[in-house]
Amino acid sequence: MTVSEDDYRKHIEELLKGNTMGVYAFLLTHGPMGVRDVQRALSFSSPSLALHHLNKLSELGLVSKDEYGVYSVTREVKVGSLSLFVKIGTRLIPRFVFLITLFSSMLVIYVIFLLSWPLTAQDMMYISISVIGISVLLYEAWRMWLLKPF
């Protein structure tokens, strides 16, 4: 009997929490590592604790261990707080950063090319709404950053 992708995702979401999520996110952003490297980087009390979380990830099919004892990510999943981030290279960036960039660019272009002097009510409305929107997005991106699992 095969397990559907949705059931597999739910199963992973149930088990991928806390320190296990931290280990997974750390391997996503820093690449392949050994047990002691993970233990030192995440300040675990012992290598066996890091090994426990790595074995848990291995059982889920998210990481694999090579013949030298180095663990690497074999499957990327977007569950829990990881779904709030986009991976670019080795960085996890909050999704709202792209909207902040878009709206900030639109505001700058408006101010440089379309703003009329003296300021009209429409100009003030556009600038006010843009600044409020960018501020809300910055706040939400900051909240996402604080939720990061690494």
Structure description:
Helix content is 60%, strand content 9%. It is mainly alpha-helical and 150 residues long. The protein has 2 domains: 5-77, Arc Repressor Mutant, subunit A, CATH 1.10.10.10; 94-147. It has a two-stranded antiparallel sheet with strand order 1-2. Strands 3-4 form a two-stranded antiparallel sheet. Helix 2 crosses helix 4 (47-59). The longest helix is centred in the C-terminal third of the chain and has 27 residues, at 121-147.
Q: Tell me the distance between the termini.
A: 35 Å
CATH architecture of the largest domain: Orthogonal Bundle
Strand content bin: 5-15%
- Basic shape: elongated
What are the segments in which pLDDT stays under 50 over at least 5 consecutive residues?
A: none
Question: Which strand order do you get reading across the main beta sheet?
Answer: 1-2
What descriptors fit this protein?
single chain; 150 residues; mainly alpha; Arc Repressor Mutant, subunit A; 2 domains; two-stranded antiparallel sheet; two-stranded antiparallel ribbon; 6 helices
Quick recap:
The chain is mainly alpha-helical and 150 residues long.
Indicate the topology.
Blueprint lengths: L4 H11 L2 H13 L4 H7 L5 H13 L3 E3 L5 E3 L11 E4 L2 E4 L1 H19 L6 H27 L3
Antiparallel strand pairs: 1-2, 3-4
